[in-house]
Amino acid sequence: MNIPCDEIISIIHSSSMPIPTPLVSRHVAVVGAGAGGLVAARELRNEGHSVVVYENQSRLGGTWVYDPDVESDPICQDPSRTMIHSSLYDSLRTNLPREAMGFRDFPFVAKDGIGRDARRFPGHKEVLMYLEDFADEFRIGEMIRFDSEVRYVGLVDGGKWRLRSWEKRDGEFEDVYDAVVVCNGHYAEPKIADIPGIGCWPGKQMHSHNYRVPEPFRDQVVVLIGSAASAVDISIDIAAVAKEVHIASRSAKEVALGKQPGYKNMWLHSMITSAHEDGTVVFQDGSKILANVILHCTGYKYHFPFLDTSGMVTVDDSRVGPLYKHVFPPALAPGLSFVGLPWKVVPFPLCELQSKWIAGVLSGRISLPSQEEMMEDIEAFYTKLEAAGIPKRYTHNCADCQFEYGDWLATKCGCHGSEEWRKEMYSQSSKTRHEKPGSYRDEWSNNQLFLQALEDFRKFLPPALIDILCNSL
Ligand SMILES: Cc1cc2nc3c(=O)[nH]c(=O)nc-3n(C[C@H](O)[C@H](O)[C@H](O)COP(=O)(O)OP(=O)(O)OC[C@H]3O[C@@H](n4cnc5c(N)ncnc54)[C@H](O)[C@@H]3O)c2cc1C
């Protein structure tokens, strides 16, 4: 490859690599300044790239910027509705212990200060403050163009990328980049359940994207569809004020159906089979109730309305593909990449590893297999999912392989893999979350893992702070 002189930014000399390797500096756009975009920007700049981050909101933090407002369409189906990015509800606390949740080299530990929340599973404001601390520490703000919505990203001649943005103050801009890293999040475009008869059902419907506080559900009979983490939180939130909460779950085990222990007004049902003009909702097990509200806690779609790849990257039944290791579309690599697509994972450290990999690939420090080899890998992955009976929509569900995947990325980047304490903390918190959904956040008893985490954090934090944190356990 012929590299222009002004693109050569550094020469690495190392004993294991006697021939100097010229690294290439690229001009890179990052779409989004949530956790993924922030860490992508840091890793790209560390690698020597010049970076511009486009952020539609007026502040950084993505999902963690709580917005008390809701969208104009409660079930988020009208394409012309006013859009809100964050799906956070007021009572939201993290579902992971903070130590496990944070970036690998910027520990998410309790801090003194106004508005800080020292709890192990803190409220959402604390996560936003942590992301702001991260951005301050690494001067990421100076790379961000706020109030700047990316409306078009497409390939131009010479393998570069045209990006058109709409800036609230100054209107439309067009820029050309060597590469674009997509970090726009995937909890903003809701999916709703398809319910036979819903068209003539007279009640109210809402998606959890628009759920903020329980008060509007006071004295109501609510049917809540879903069983993921936020469905569980919201059902508990609402049960405090609603007349009845009926949870309809695809994955409910038969033995668990019926009145829920510990709650006087909560029932678990199988899926809804139909809704009727008289206001009743009927479940698969034959039971029926007269309901006021259906609350869809039914998840979100991957959505890239700005991306024009001429069909080279598609979203099909929640599969974004084809993507090599959830990041690079082989035909467009390394100019286009995605950070943060995996779900049921610990997102911050995983985004960090994906970003390191992307940054290293773009500079030429890390090489990718050929396009054909990447496609073969993807085909083999899809075949494996199919053979195991895993539906397409679970392509990016990395619950069972996140640490293995993270370790693979770490090896490529030449850095350490996932810490043992982090893996164990994740697994223990997932278990206790299922066993005690209403209290797991405040009943953690195994301090040994936290001591291990704090020992690890000695690399990044002053010894006196570590001692204070250890003593507070
Ligand atoms: C209810 C809920 C609870 C969660 N709880 C936890 C938890 O406890 N722990 C945990 O680790 N994770 C949790 N998560 C996951 C959470 O999504 C991640 O922690 C993290 O926020 C993902 O960061 P991201 O950068 O990928 O996406 P986001 O945080 O969504 O950021 C994407 C950014 O891109 C911007 N953007 C989008 N489109 C454009 C565009 N066209 N132009 C410019 N900017 C654009 C958005 O404005 C946003 O700022 C939760 C998620 C939800 C929805």
TrEMBL record:
EC code: 1.-.-.-
Keywords, comma-separated and alphabetical: FAD, Flavoprotein, Monooxygenase, NADP, Oxidoreductase
One Pfam family recorded for the sequence: FMO-like
GO molecular function, one term: NADP binding
Cross-referenced InterPro entries: FAD/NAD-bd_sf, Flavin_mOase, Flavin_mOase-like, FMO-like
Essential cofactor(s): FAD
Keyword Oxidoreductase among record annotations: yes
UniProt enzyme class: oxidoreductase
Domain of life (superkingdom): Eukaryota
Keyword Flavoprotein: yes
Family note: Belongs to the FMO family.
Protein name: Flavin-containing monooxygenase
Organism: Kalanchoe fedtschenkoi
